[in-house]
Amino acid sequence: MQVCATRFRGRSPLFRSFCLRTFKTLPVIDISALVEDRQDPTDQKHAANSLHAACRDVGFFYVVNHGVPASVTDGVLQEARQWFSLPAEVKQQIALGPKSSYRGYQQLGSNVTRFDGGFQRDHHEAIDLYKEEADREASPVHGMNLWPVQRPAFEASLRQYVESCLGVGQAVMRGVALGLGLPGNYFESAEGGGTTADSSYWVMRAIHYPPLSQAGGRLGEAAAQAVAGADVERHVQLSCGEHTDYGLLTLVNQEPHIPALQVKNAAGEWITAEPIPGSFVCNIGDMLKVYTNGLYEPTPHRVINADPSRSRVSIPFFYEPAFEAQVAPIPALLPAGTVPRFGSVCYGSHLESKVLNNFELEPQASSVGEA
Ligand SMILES: O=C(O)CCC(=O)C(=O)O
Ligand SMILES: [Fe+2]
Questions:
Q1: Fewer Cβ neighbours under 10 Å: the N or C end of the chain?
Q2: Signal peptide position in this chain (predicted)?
Q3: How far apart are CA 302 and CA 267, in angstroms?
């Protein structure tokens, strides 16, 4: 601790952030003390301090001892794998589009990653689901989900998974609040945005990543360099292109057999988030950047399934603020006299602007498009 304090004395926050964000591994954090709010405050503070360091210095971390049984996390991945093996015309019965409020199934290549001057189609297929709220004013994303009813067991396991993830999200956010020196229920209070397991406008994606390799099982040259950890041109097709997430907190449940998720450090090196059985890989999104006035930064990440013989399934769950939450820098975190770097953002408007940009749903003419 002393070493760090000396090393950064008199240096700018930017210098500090650069030095610390050259991580080579992702921290693993035991959150058992946060899962039950009645746990020992010393243990809670320990977990909270680890979360604070991870959010500030990495933006990514694993959580373990989160209380969700393996039968739930493994079961939903197995069900997803079964569903994605159904014939295309069956999967299209729940096709996503403007009429379905961007909820439902998107076939391979419909999801895109945009960059200056164009976009690239991501090499995955997915089902997108959101919190369902019947009595809402119109919005492009409000509506009811297209659940994968063709396999009732999948729908049931997804619904159970949502309930479990809402609990984990709430526990982690309790730790994030404590780690910032705020009351544990800060983000649940009206002042902190009112994000509870009931009000969170959660988002969930069940994603199937077929092998990225071309005919003969070989990856393109640039994609192969990316697998080895290189930064590549944005037009190179990946399983999911480089991006950051939009909300508070993402929890990724990934299959154990393929290391595919990569996280970028401040030196431009890509660090693989190796699957750790029994863990969620967590990362922070834009809303925590605003709340902390930039102290926490969402970290860029991407996915590459380089295995020529096997596909990969993951189910990211996004624990988000309430749709109407107005998110702004938290006054108690601003040193006296500091001007906030960000104004107030409506989470729902931010989400809509991102979702409406995520798809190119018409048939594919070529793999690289013009924006
Ligand atoms: O599949 C993964 O491991 C991560 C997916 C992801 O980053 C996302 O959906 O935002
Ligand atoms: Fe992501």
A1: N
A2: none
A3: 16
Q: What is the mean pLDDT of residues 330-343?
A: 94
- Atom in ligand 1 nearest the alpha carbon of residue 316: 9
Task: Return left, alpha or beta for 181; rule: phi > 0 is left, psi -120 to 50 is alpha, else beta.
Answer: left
User: Which letter does DSSP use for residue 219 in this model?
Assistant: P
* 283: enclosing H helix or E strand: strand 280-284
> 3-state SS of the chain: helix, strand, coil percent to 5?
30, 20, 50
Residue nearest to atom 5 of ligand 1 (CA): 316
pLDDT on residue 371: 47
Cβ-proximal residues to 143 (8 Å cutoff; 6+ apart), any chain:
100, 101, 103, 132
Residue 14 in this model has a pLDDT that exceeds 80: no
DSSP 102: T
Q: Which atom of ligand 1 has the smallest separation from the CA of 207?
A: 1
Supply 339's token pair.
């001007």
Tell me what ipTM this predicted complex has.
Answer: 0.99
351, 324 Cβ separation under 8 angstroms? no
